[in-house]
Structure formats: structure tokens, C-alpha cells
Write a structure and sequence with these properties.
8 helices; about 35% helix; alpha/beta
Amino acid sequence: MEHPVAARAPDRVGRGRGRGIGAAGLKKSQLKPWLKKQWCLSKLDGEYLAKMEDVLELYAQPAHPGRARLCFDERPCQLLGEKLAALPARPGQVARQDHEYVRHGTAVVLLAYDLDTGQRYAQVRARRTKADYADFLHQVLTTHYADAARVDLVQDNLNTHAYGSFYEHLPVAQARALSRQVRFHFTPRHGSWLNMAELEFSALARQCLDRRIASLDELARQVQAWATERNRRAVKVNWSFTLAKAEDKLQHWYTKVNPVNKPEPPSQTG
């Protein structure tokens, strides 16, 4: 809701009424200092374009036997409990809850999404450390992709997302096996929109996390129930942004990164 301006511009000293601030005056509610827009002020450079194209090319490839394509990401969550017991719904009246809540700490949802099968694997953990990252991927890959010779993994550039995490927290034989099996594909900085796991988290937020959940165990149960239901239906992400569309829509940035990419002007005939 937009609030009215607190006070009118003062009249000028002397006879008559002033026109307000500035020579042309200022209409009521023209300035709204309590409002602001927020967006990602990212710089598209050559590194951004290279990583974007790498991910888009991976998405465009057909499925291959013996090869898997996964998107991995993490989402922090607050654990919130009720300060006062909520009132259940009754005929003609929706359920009601008090606006105050009790904080019970935080948790993290780790998720890997298989874009070929429409399956997702999720776990809830107290933290997102290198150990959590290595253990989660080790569990997912050895349980569901033991026969895959290669696993392409799309993820962001968080410092825990590295082969070194395997070696620091798994026996060397397991770390070596994972490192040889997994190929990393990093999204660019501020390019999380390229990760299909982000779309899964968007669905999770709408369908599961739109309520107060007070404990780690309850969050784990809710997330697992959500994942099981979507896996039963093999829900897939309908990805439509291709490399050709990127080159068309981001032509200005391709040219800005390297002027030789400037499109040729249309030829004059006749």
C-alpha cells in the first residue's frame, strides 16, 4: 500500500501560495522514498557467456545410455514454530494463526534433479558444509547412478562444490571414483536461473514450504513427501531457453563482450 505524502511543500515567504519544490512544482505522491526496486546488477562478461553456453548445450543434448544429467542446488530454510496455538478451520471460517512465531534455528535442503527421468532426490540437513555436499552426492550417485559411466552435474560456484570436498571427507577410493564419474558444469555468477534445480525449489516453496515448520525432522518428512509425490508423476521441467535464443536475446552483450560479434547491417538491394 502506498502512503500519502506526510506534508505539503511549504508556502513561499510573502504574499500568495507557493508552487512547491522546484520551478515546475512537485505533485503530491510523486516522490515515494519508501518504495524501491531490487534486481540483480550482474555484469555479463565473456566468462558469463561461456558458462551459460556450456549449460545450455548440455540441456540441448539428447539422453544417452550410461550417462546421467543432474542439476544440484541447496536452499536454506528457517525453522519456525507457533507462539500461540493456531485456530483450526471451521465452517465459514478459515484457519487462523497468530502473527508472532518462535525461531528454532535454520536448516538446508539439498536437492539433485535428473532432467532425463524427472526424478529428484532431496535431503534436509542442519548445515551445508563440504562434508554435507560430499556425503549427499556420494549417497545419490552410489544409490541411483552406480552403473552410469558419466554424470554431468550442473551447479553454482559455491566454494564447497568442488572435487576437493570429496577427497577431504570421503575415503580416497570413493573420492577418486566420484571425481572420475562426475563432470561439473558451473552456472555463471548471478546465473542461478540457468539451474533447473532452482525451478524445483520454486515448486517446493509453493507446495511445501508455505507454512511454519518447527523442527528438522518435520521439515525432512514434508520435503520427502513432496519429492515422493513429484517422482511418482515423474514431473519434468519444460526448459525452452536454447543457445539460439540466448544469442538472439543477448546479442547486445555478445557484441559488448567482443565487438566482432556485431551483426552485419542488412544489405541494400536495388
